[in-house]
Design brief:
527 residues; alpha+beta; Sulfite Reductase Hemoprotein, domain 2; Sulfite Reductase Hemoprotein, domain 1; Alpha-Beta Plaits; 4 domains; 5-stranded antiparallel sheet; 15 helices; 20% strand
Length: 527
């Protein structure tokens, strides 16, 4: 009997019939023919160009993510994005946890125009979504981080051209997420990426080390150290190409629930994966025992010194990661007038203004305060929110507006949430990275007073990244509009009960559901 071929998923069939990266001529044609001309299968392929159907799918509007490697933009690029936002996207733009921008309300007629305008200023959308290497994330402090061994900016740009844009690596089993940093700190979150490159020093040489196999969603995994030292950018690219090729060839294409590289690493084990990389390279990698990271789990906001004497950067907290085109224009104007004309998006949905000389700091701060965007003390600096049901087809509940409401409540009540990361997610898929938050709110439903299903959140506690990372644990359901008072009660209990310098995560790590309910004054019930 002939060996039965494995049954591929529908997505694999679609990719096999037509490579998604070949879609651009079709996009131009649909812009003339209209939304109804787009075949259903091509809505899947459209993701490779950063576009998803916006909720509801039948209305003909798209969300677009832009590819902004390591969140690095100059003022010309920022102004172009701001103009696109005002002209085509109802003047609303979101910063994502992968350091890029996304906009909504786009029509098929406008998408080719937007892609071309982005290209005019050196930006793109290729790989912002789809089963491909997604937007490369990095240390937002690259080039001015006092701790970095290497400025990885050039490496990131090479990675995009030499690996991300390789057509043969444009069809992977699932999305593939990479972070690259020349610093030993974990601001680029190597723990939760498919590949996490981290700056390292070994035997007097500065280079990189690497972790693989991380990922969140409904089945989260922390990446594992390969325990190798990579001496330069060339070696990093060779190793990463080998890792990606192995995933392309051996990743699961029959079950999308098991198709991320984290499952392949789990199946093979880290030693086998390293052996297979070395077979591809044709040589043994330098062994690097016991790698560590410097734990930095929040953005440096306000005025901060850099490794260049007399030069500063200013971290601007962006409330729920959302701003208008006018807001972005104002930030670009300030970056040009008082800084070096460059900005960075962070994975905490904030923006950094770079290259501000000491003499310009006070002027920059006054200009920022005048915009209404910046406050010296702002509760939103550690609060992350996904898109939510406002636009996302997967979300169960609304997030952005409720997160903003919670921030306002905490500021009004003067609740000190310093050193506590709070993440809101509209569904269990973890776009907001709730799995690594101190407090995570995950969209769900509960029965209300009239026995009707109402929006709610499942409260998660105890997540963190670093050398001893942990994922959050689900505890109790809370009413959707009571998140501010929930956080207030948790924080007050923590502040009044903790011993010595116990972290928020460690304080609540052993709390059972019943104990959390008691702190919150909630009566547990079964839906």
């Amino acid at each position: 009997m002939a060996e039965e071929k494995p049954k591929l998923t529908n997505e694999e069939r679609i990719k096999k019939e037509k490579h998604p990266l070949s879609l651009r001529p079709d996009i131009d044609r649909w812009a003339k023919e209209g939304f109804a001309a787009i075949p259903e299968d091509d809505h899947i392929r459209f993701k490779w160009f950063g576009c998803y159907l916006q909720k509801p799918k039948t209305d003909g509007y798209f969300m677009m993510r832009m590819r902004i490697p390591s969140g690095q933009i100059n003022v010309a690029q920022g102004r172009m994005i701001a103009d696109i936002t005002k002209e085509f996207a109802r003047n609303e733009i979101d910063i994502t946890t992968r350091q890029c921008f996304q906009v909504h309300w786009l029509t098929i007629q406008t998408i080719p125009v937007i892609i071309d305008r982005l290209k005019d200023v050196g930006l793109d959308v290729l790989g912002a979504c789809g089963d491909i290497t997604r937007n490369i994330t990095g240390n937002p402090l690259a080039g001015f981080d006092e701790n970095e061994y290497v400025d990885a900016s050039k490496l990131i740009n090479r990675y995009v051209k030499e690996i991300s844009e390789r057509p043969d690596l444009g069809d992977l089993p699932r999305k593939f997420k990479v972070s690259i940093s020349g610093s030993p700190n974990n601001l680029a979150q190597p723990e939760i990426n498919c590949i996490g490159i981290v700056g390292a020093e070994y035997e007097g040489k500065k280079g990189y080390t690497i972790r693989i196999g991380g990922g969140l969603s409904t089945n989260p995994f922390f990446s594992k150290w390969l325990n190798v030292f990579l001496k330069d950018d060339d070696e990093v690219l060779k190793v990463c190409a080998a890792i990606t090729e192995l995933y392309r060839d051996f990743g699961n294409r029959e079950n999308r629930r098991k198709s991320r590289i984290k499952f392949l690493v789990e199946e093979w084990g880290i030693d086998k994966y390293r052996d297979e990389i070395e077979k591809k390279l044709g040589y043994k990698l330098t062994h690097y025992p016991n790698p560590k990271v410097l734990e930095v789990n929040s953005d440096a906001l306000g005025v901060n010194k850099t490794k260049q004497p007399g030069i500063n950067f200013i971290g601007v907290p962006i409330k729920v990661g959302r701003l208008s085109g006018e807001d972005l224009h104002k930030l670009c104007d300030i970056a040009e007038k008082f800084g070096n004309g460059n900005l960075r998006c962070t994975n905490k949905q904030n923006i950094l203004i770079l290259g501000v000389p000491d003499a310009n700091v006070s002027g920059a701060l006054e200009a920022l305060k005048a915009t209404g965007i910046y406050k010296e003390r702002q509760t939103s600096n550690r609060v992350i929110s996904c898109t939510g049901s406002e636009y996302c087809n997967l979300a169960i509940v609304e997030t952005k507006h409720r997160t903003a409401k919670m921030i306002d409540y905490l500021e009004e009540k003067n609740v000190n949430v310093d050193n506590v990361n709070i993440h809101f997610s509209g569904c269990p898929n973890s776009c907001s990275q709730y799995s690594i938050a101190d407090i995570g709110f995950i969209g769900g439903k509960t029965r209300g007073e009239n026995d009707e299903m109402e929006e709610a959140y499942i409260l998660h506690l105890g997540g963190s990244i670093g050398n001893n990372p942990s994922f959050t644990r689900g505890t109790v359901k809370v009413k959707a509009d009571e998140c501010g008072s929930i956080v207030e009660k948790l924080i007050n209990h923590y502040r009044t009960t903790k011993v010595n310098g116990t972290s928020f995560r460690d304080f609540y790590k052993d709390y059972e559901k019943e104990q959390v309910a008691e702190v919150l004054g909630i009566t547990l019930k079964t839906d």
